[in-house]
Write a structure and sequence with these properties.
Oligomer: single chain
Number of domains: 2
Helix content: over 70%
Number of helices: 14
Distance between the termini: 19 Å
Radius of gyration: 20 Å
Shape: globular
Order of helices and strands: HHHHHEHHHHHEHHHH
Protein name: Branched-chain amino acid ABC transporter permease
Amino acid sequence: MTPIRRDILIGLICIAVALIVPFVFGGRYVVTQATVFFVWAIVVVQWNLVLGVGGIFSLAQMALFAIGGYATAMLGFYLKVPMLVAIPLGGLIAVVAGMIIGLACLRLRGPYVALLTLAIAQVMYVLIVNDTGCFTNVSGCMPLFGGVRGIGQFGDLGFRSLFPSKWYIAHYYVALGLLALAFVFSVAVIRGPLGLAFKALRDSPGYALSRGISRFKYQLWIFAVSAFFTGIAGGFYAVHFRVIGPTVFSFSLLLFLIAMIVVGGMGSIWGPLLGAALLMLADEGMKEFSDYRNIGLGLLITLFVIAWPRGLAGWFDRLRALRTSNPD
């Protein structure tokens, strides 16, 4: 079986299982946690394109996520734009921001890209938190970006009125659909000619440039397209929770999402999803032990970095290779 056919088969099986989850595990907690998993999975799948496939050490993904969320909320709050329109518009605004960040990083390499993109995210956080002046008095003194309280009351997708007691199931399927689109796009990039170009720029920049592969064009391209799906994920996150605030800039959240990529397998197709699933389950399992929660997650990440540096995806690839070489 070819890799593409295998990916399609596994993807169809995963979608079929995901479609029946609300009917098998109908509890609200399980469905809402699965919805959050889909949102973070979109972010890490797109982040993997930049970090794992493109080899660009960008930490701007949560900033792009926040831009998508804030743009969606502000369009709804100030301009009364319907959320079905505001979410894709938020994704497009994140694309513009991603291209600007990509331009700023063109002359930088490795840790310098990480420092610059992290600094951009922190500057955004400081500006939002320190935004205390009254921009409008529609619902009390409201700063432009909501300040530390964030922005709320900007609208929803309409499922709460259509399905008063089951709206969260509708949100579950919307998030699943967005993840499916983001993942199919990711597979098309990694398996296609663009993926080869990104890997060449990552592994041998000099050779790639000598073959006419433009770092300028491809870096801007990967920043832009990954920003679109990340911005849409941020917009849906804001709509799902009915608020967007500076907590999305949390450094611990950023590290948690990076850990998903590392544990799953950086640069692989299925790694980000596997890592997101494992760490979400581990995080949920350790909620009862809040004092040791971060320690447990740290030990889990350390174990994978030392024992399985290629992550879960690399471990599964190794098992498949051993099975192929020893069919008996």
